[in-house]
């Protein structure tokens, strides 16, 4: 082990004996009281020295016997310590590809802020390569989501859609201008390949033989704005039946939508959303029937910056889930409208009449995603990396650890 105080956290002394790691309330911690000798010793924790050398440095800094180990233990408990050498098999493989790792260094540094175990951030980053995401919808939102996930290290990103690329599909983060007129799915897949930090993982055997491989996550990003506003439960039903987590995202008129992220049988789905709306508004089913029976507009409104914003947030929610966290889109739809651009979350609870079974699970529980549900979903992931809750991965606010 080569201990390293997480370099992603900016360090500052609040007074002579108290050091603050990090700047923002979400991740900052204070450590104290810290005497001068220990404060100097912290500088040695930069990942270049092993334990034996650090103990030697401790003696040189006049630290009492055992103090080096005590400091390291306290830092580790506070989640402030990383290990420059720790690596499981996947992490070791990523270390062996410095060109790919260099592309992802800011992402790795960011992951150290939401993980606690030394070496865990690299394990999570490397584990993305074993995940498979399918994005349905290759318009302004869908292709950007797919490219972002690919660039963030997701090993297999498949895109599905029909038809050809139109000039208005071209965006800086999505389809390139040269793809106009090309088949939409092929153009999107090419853009995804070019975004990856390293060569794509070999396609799963089922995909190569034309079968349907298991997806870690499916993102539903339809180009049709009716499907964004009121996702058809029949479309996502097969995903619910196979227990496939799926995330809804898109732009409808001048509103961007991210969520819900559906954990089948555990949290609210498109059917729950539709049933709640019908409960609140008797005219809802009649409106939906009219919207759906009209032909989709060839050029629906879709502001470029709004589409990119939605894609960025949707990809972030997807990645948080793939990394083992439970993002806030589980049981909620995040919405943002032009021109004020204030994000708001609309809670989507499981509906008792929905066949997804989410309501039964939620019965008698305080929220739709209880502790047991989170643990169970954790067990369904193909990765061996331990999972966390987004709201419990790290304590929020400034937290004091004593050395
Ligand atoms: Zn449901």
Automatic annotation (TrEMBL):
**Ranges of Basic and acidic residues compositional bias?**
360-375
Annotated region (Disordered), positions in chain: 173-216, 357-403
Q: Kindly give the NCBIfam families that the UniProt entry links to this protein.
A: cyclo_dehyd_2 (TIGR03882)
The domain of life is Bacteria
THIF-type NAD/FAD binding fold domain span: 129-356
Specify the protein name: THIF-type NAD/FAD binding fold domain-containing protein
Alphabetized GO MF terms = ubiquitin-like modifier activating enzyme activity
Which SUPFAM superfamilies does the record associate with it?
Activating enzymes of the ubiquitin-like proteins
InterPro entries this protein is in? Bacteriocin_synth_cyclodeHase, ThiF_NAD_FAD-bd, Ubiquitin-activating_enz
